[in-house]
Amino acid sequence: MSSPFDEDKPRDGCGVFGIYGHPDAAYLTYLGLYALQHRGQESAGIVTSDRENFHWHLGMGLVVNVFDEEMLSKLEGDIAIGHNRYSTAGSSSLQNAQPLVRHIAGELVAIAHNGNLVNAPYLRRELENKGAIFISTSDTEIIAHLIARSGQLYFEDRVVDALLQLRGAYSLLIMTRNMMLAARDPWGFRPLWMGRLGEAVVFASETCAFDVIKATPEREVQPGELIIVTPNEIKTFQFAKEKHAFCIFEYIYLSRPDSIVFGEIVNGPRRRFGMQLAREHPADADIVIPVPDSANISALGYSQESGIPFEFGLYRNQYVGRTFIQPVQTAREKMVNIKLNPIRNVVEGKRVVVVDDSIMRGTNCRRIVKMLRRGGAKEVHFRVSSPPNKFPCFYGIDTPTRQELIASSHTVEEIRRYIGADSLGYLSIEGMLSCVKNPDEFCTACFDGRYPVEFTDQTLQQLSIEFTRGRKR
Amino acid sequence: MSSPFDEDKPRDGCGVFGIYGHPDAAYLTYLGLYALQHRGQESAGIVTSDRENFHWHLGMGLVVNVFDEEMLSKLEGDIAIGHNRYSTAGSSSLQNAQPLVRHIAGELVAIAHNGNLVNAPYLRRELENKGAIFISTSDTEIIAHLIARSGQLYFEDRVVDALLQLRGAYSLLIMTRNMMLAARDPWGFRPLWMGRLGEAVVFASETCAFDVIKATPEREVQPGELIIVTPNEIKTFQFAKEKHAFCIFEYIYLSRPDSIVFGEIVNGPRRRFGMQLAREHPADADIVIPVPDSANISALGYSQESGIPFEFGLYRNQYVGRTFIQPVQTAREKMVNIKLNPIRNVVEGKRVVVVDDSIMRGTNCRRIVKMLRRGGAKEVHFRVSSPPNKFPCFYGIDTPTRQELIASSHTVEEIRRYIGADSLGYLSIEGMLSCVKNPDEFCTACFDGRYPVEFTDQTLQQLSIEFTRGRKR
Amino acid sequence: MSSPFDEDKPRDGCGVFGIYGHPDAAYLTYLGLYALQHRGQESAGIVTSDRENFHWHLGMGLVVNVFDEEMLSKLEGDIAIGHNRYSTAGSSSLQNAQPLVRHIAGELVAIAHNGNLVNAPYLRRELENKGAIFISTSDTEIIAHLIARSGQLYFEDRVVDALLQLRGAYSLLIMTRNMMLAARDPWGFRPLWMGRLGEAVVFASETCAFDVIKATPEREVQPGELIIVTPNEIKTFQFAKEKHAFCIFEYIYLSRPDSIVFGEIVNGPRRRFGMQLAREHPADADIVIPVPDSANISALGYSQESGIPFEFGLYRNQYVGRTFIQPVQTAREKMVNIKLNPIRNVVEGKRVVVVDDSIMRGTNCRRIVKMLRRGGAKEVHFRVSSPPNKFPCFYGIDTPTRQELIASSHTVEEIRRYIGADSLGYLSIEGMLSCVKNPDEFCTACFDGRYPVEFTDQTLQQLSIEFTRGRKR
Amino acid sequence: MSSPFDEDKPRDGCGVFGIYGHPDAAYLTYLGLYALQHRGQESAGIVTSDRENFHWHLGMGLVVNVFDEEMLSKLEGDIAIGHNRYSTAGSSSLQNAQPLVRHIAGELVAIAHNGNLVNAPYLRRELENKGAIFISTSDTEIIAHLIARSGQLYFEDRVVDALLQLRGAYSLLIMTRNMMLAARDPWGFRPLWMGRLGEAVVFASETCAFDVIKATPEREVQPGELIIVTPNEIKTFQFAKEKHAFCIFEYIYLSRPDSIVFGEIVNGPRRRFGMQLAREHPADADIVIPVPDSANISALGYSQESGIPFEFGLYRNQYVGRTFIQPVQTAREKMVNIKLNPIRNVVEGKRVVVVDDSIMRGTNCRRIVKMLRRGGAKEVHFRVSSPPNKFPCFYGIDTPTRQELIASSHTVEEIRRYIGADSLGYLSIEGMLSCVKNPDEFCTACFDGRYPVEFTDQTLQQLSIEFTRGRKR
Questions:
Q1: C310 and C279, same structural domain?
Q2: D148 and A133 in contact by Cβ < 8 A?
Q3: Taking the model in full, what pTM does it have?
């Protein structure tokens, strides 16, 4: 449940959708991408195969704005993959929009990728040294080159060759004229599901994309698994095995509450985070309100566990677009009230518990506290349904840098003072993990710095250097 | 709290905003319209006056899409009015976008109008007979003609002349090179507020537009009042007096819950509708869920009064745009799940009370009930936080025709059967009125057919005939 | 033969086209406007009637850019009028694009107008005083108001009523749901033709628009004639009679050489101007070259009469668009060589006669002379195939103001010195008139100031004041 | 002098422009491309280097439509290359627009290419086998891959490595952050010039691009020469030597008459072709007219040599755009009169010699003959200022296939009968060559099939197969 364009929120790393063997492939992909819109609002793209040629359309913006009826009607064929992008790496331009389409070894290939490779700078430099040419700054292009340069004869073997060189997070859909391949990294950072719609096979980042087309979820693509759909059969390979490292942020913020992710409907752990938060950080207060809409469910959990009544105390304007015009001379801080407004007769004279899902820079929370006080709140008790965010993510969530993460250099008390709340409580790491099944299968690097896939400092540096070159206007 | 593009919801009749005497007039109007976006998503427009010339830009779509920084920067001047439109009368095209700009008697005039005139067909025919030329099909053009043809010398007297001929709902902002006039019909159907931002005078349909620019609400423009802001003074006239007829639908659905409308923060009556509904139609159930987001507050009221726990059982996709592509061959009924999806672990095995704000055609409710059953709900008890909608509105809310309103020809039991709920309960008219201050000052025509401003059958017929001619491509 | 976007050329005053009773009315109008593109490149519009409704599309720019296949296909009906505009009066914006569409006295009316009314300011003020509202600044809107306010019962009588109040130049096409009316001012300033395409009746500013659709020219609409095409008959009225005043500039520059205008193929008088020029201003020279393409024919005439060989000495780039980006800091003078370039091996070492059709400000000629000298010309003898342009046109050609017309305040010798030519010769008024049939039926006001339709100084002043108010962005 | 969108004309193969070391690099490139517009109207692009980053903008359409002021202002830097494209190979889409920008071996590289490689299919297959990935279908991408894969250390050596593998026509501009390289194939098929603008170095396909920016032409880049402009010096290498094979079609049709190409102002040979044609195929006729505008000069030559008066007998509408809407049900033949129209009083009753520059399919000539007869011509003698076009070009001019070239399978008499002329005369190959300097340095393959650079049949077949895959919508 992503609230778009909150500069204080972690950004997400893309949604992917694929369908194999359905006459309405393009339209169903359109619906699927629409359901996955919360995973990326920067660009959208669909590529179809009519078994001879590819047809595609990519554009900047929301799915509903990128496509119109005429365009969709031209995307012929019964195989399709689609992609919603929020830039994790690579500058923000049509150049980097996905799916990527390339001629590889005499074959047409399209790739849609959700995740982030930690060895991308290394792989890119190696490839460049061997004469590979790059157009975009996206990781996906690296994957294409690795496939192209594999010595293997069969396309699926080329893909395995490539996958074995990747380190980091990836949930991939690869399409050729006749095949679709779905792969998930051995750690399983990002979700990827397989389902059925009659005879057709479908893949999606989250099951909500199946609901919208009335497809049946079948199972998650397993970490380290490659599924190959051909005209005749569906094959599966376990190409690698690692200790699982599911991204806990999918539960905290990223995935839709109605999706099944990592074996559970997201609403479950998300609400339990709120309940556990109430146990860890109770408050002597009159009402519990969420920062809408991303904290609705955890706030409700807090209310249910604490017995403090749930209320809607902040109204969120739903019409924010990509291009809201900022006043020239004004700092960010002044801007929050274009989106949120206190409902005065709810908060006035009340001791308010306000629940948010996470704190990145802290500026947004500060504005919310101010806004509630201006609305008449007697006390403001800030509660966060995740632990302090101290470390950046390198596996596909576009968090601020370490310097910008307020919790990386400030104590909880210092943060409380900065945001101006009467009290501040974060969920503990242990508490958080107690709310999920198989807690040791989750990645908590953004809280504790224990990165499950290593990288060197040099790599890190290059992560930022490489990607600032050659911006397209 | 309007959910855009629900074909089963009443549509709204525009939002207006004006500011007099501020160097950033255009930008503040942009912010004001953004806050009023829920009142109309079809077109948006801003006209400014630099005291010599007018500058304007109008376009189809949301405020954030219609304007960009360059455009705003060209809208010079310290006086501005703006308009968000949802078509109540007149076909949907740029032709009908507002504010209307005209040369009248050697003066430049811009008009922004929220409401609907019941004597528009009569006035239009009369004017045409006298040689008036019409371009659009909007009521606003009629008002412009009446002003132009008044024999009065002073502009404000011309306006009063015109207003005295209008019957029906109007909240008007009129701008000349040097003046701004704000008028509200004598019945007070639609809201209109006046506020201050430093030295500047501001007007808006709802106070939420003042919050976003940090202006101070001062008072409602009174029914039958004309306020005239000139370079030297602010004058006010009471040009007519009628028994008040405030639109109760502003409380049920149309206004934002954080706005002050008709003397009260909307959240107040809206929640009380839910509470009263719980008293009138209790249910033996496990959870109460809203049809998000428009019924959030009344559902919470129902939960609080009944003691049945409040839950989020339906997820609403927030990225619906104006141009969602419908599958060619599919009926409306199939489409609901692009926007709503049940959260299975909330509703599964539960006896669910689902609260909606109103029922127009019933198709949407029917889909919601089906969806909840598919999501595993054991029982579905539908509750509506307003009385049965039996009569169309002629005062500025774009309801379906009488034939299309399911409650006009069906009993509650028949409707229950149609939508497939286990039980169905509507709020009573008396119950509804018991939740508002000064209940006899409200219009309840859409429930009981007691139209406070009369019109002839002939007029009615022409309402539909006149407005279907001359569609622009 | 208009060369678009020559800032030193007179601009033209629009082209009109109409067709009554053909299933492909919109497409044929598109072709007709395309053939008349040289008469106006600012905006284009088509309105069709399907006998019940109007359908229209208007846009800024060239016909080929304004319309696409989808749009044309929506313009249903067997009656259509179209318009190419270059702004003679009224600011340049979509607001002023034609044909104008209005609801008049319960009827839908579309008007396309070529010309300029000298009593427009007076009529407009009168109408405003009587309560008429204006949107655009175009004369055409005045005509619409006069029709609307006529007391006559029948539409054609209303039109006659209106026409009798107009003074100045107009070639008009008026369309209702069922009728088409064509009218030409009693002086006959601008051309207007009637033709046949099978059963269909067609009208156009020039016959070249008939050629492109293979229609047969029938006759000119007579000065002071109103032709009315109804479902049953074609009627004609002579509503007024004045001494004819055909615009000689149609022969000099504006009309296409392949069109029949004022009873003759334009190529005829245009070439004779060049021949007469050779007789009046011979030159001792090696070659004759035109300023391409508008002076091609008169230069050829000069060559044929003088015996000096005709050559192409200047290359004209044909790809100039409406939006050529000018270097920020550079004067106009520097810009000419984006369009013209000397062909060095033609002019080098030669004594060159260069023929242009007219001189307005002189800046363009000055650049051409420089360019030819830079290209190696030994001598440059400038010849102009029309007399010195001393007076502005008020009948539909957008000439510079009197102050800007170099010939209004400078002798021929002064102009020669300014443009830097070795000699300069203009065609004499008598010489010019000796080249046309019925010379006393032509208007030569731009050369001798004898305006055939009078206007007051006050009117003149208002011509410029009125039209600068209320610019749309 | 290219007339755009004549389906019966050979198409051209792109224009290139480059400038090194000028603060207004982008704007001057814009002017240069504008002057070279006749070489390609499908897409236009400019890439600049600010010595650290590249900035670019590419778009479909004419230069004046692709760029606006804001865009140009963002193209920072003092080095730039630009490209006008007409597709010789590769489907028509933005994908194939040039200049191409790539990351190659850690360097940013932009390439603009005019020509066509006959060993492209072979090189592409080889590269694909070695793991190279292709996005577009253009030859230019092959060149980029060859540079990337060279084992050489220095960039210029990599370029030489690549050039030595190319066979066919290429005039190339290559830009890195700090360098510009200009190369021309050893046969010299296409022109390429070097010039100076103060300190800045400029390159362009034709010298007319220097005239527009007032740069001084210095010399042609020699066949087989690579010029390298670095911050410190200008170096030159002769990387290969072959017998010259200048494209004679540059003189016949492609280049502007005011450009210096292959050592001569194009106007010279072009006019001599007409004079020689008059000697080889005299006619007993009253007038000579050109098919405007491409045959203007040769027709004038014919007139001068034969003594038959030159006339303008066909008017050409200059406003044809890229998207002219064709009537759905009509064959091409019906369409010609949208562009050309006879000037009746010129041709009526006359024996007319009409001169065109070449005949491809013959359909256009057939329409012209018909049109002239309809215009009243007594006799029509068709003369062509080039020999019969029997063979397709593989060196960068987009001629029809052999099957479509009427002269490949028909005698002159058969063609005469097909086009319906009274007589038909083509220029002889010997006659043509007698009009140019160093006749043995020209390629005449399209007339005599003697291709100076060989290719296999298999290659030919692949030329068409490869390029039809993977069309973008």
A1: yes
A2: yes
A3: 0.88
